Amino acid sequence: MATDYDTPRKTDDDVNEDSIEELKARRNDKSTSTVDVDDFEAAEGLELPGADLSNEELSVRVLPRQADEFTCMSCFLVHHRSQLAGEKNGQPICRDCE
Q1: What percent of the chain lies above the pLDDT cut of 70?
Q2: What confidence tens digit (pLDDT) does each residue in 4-49 have?
Q3: Which of 9, 24, 25, 82 is 20 to 30 A distant from 61 in Cα terms?
């Protein structure tokens, strides 16, 4: 007979806990359900694909490139000088793109 080793194994304690009487008692104890309001509040901030965002504004403060930063000419991201791997054709390249 083949054994499925991925299935969870039940110990004697688990078998005793799952008796019908205990399951019925748990069901009766949970007669009232509570609603977590935080889940609803978190869902309000989500946007669905195709939502109309034409009247929304995005306000982000953009800082110019600092003296100790460079723009990688492969990925076009601004990195700190410590990430400079070298230059290809006179253009700075970061360690990730090297």
Answers
A1: 70
A2: 777 777 666 666 656 777 777 777 765 555 555 566 666 666 767 7
A3: 82
Once rounded to an integer, what is the mean pLDDT over residues 83-98? 92
Going by the DSSP 8-state scheme, the letter that residue 42 receives in this structure is: H
Nearest of 62, 83, 79, 63 to residue 71 by alpha carbon: 79
Phi-psi region of 44 (alpha: psi -120 to 50; beta: other; left: phi over 0): alpha
CA 30 to CA 83: how far, in whole Å?
57
Q: How many Å apart are CA 92 and CA 89, to the nearest integer?
A: 9
C-alpha distances (whole Å) from 16 to each of 8, 12, 22, 25 are 16, 6, 9, 14
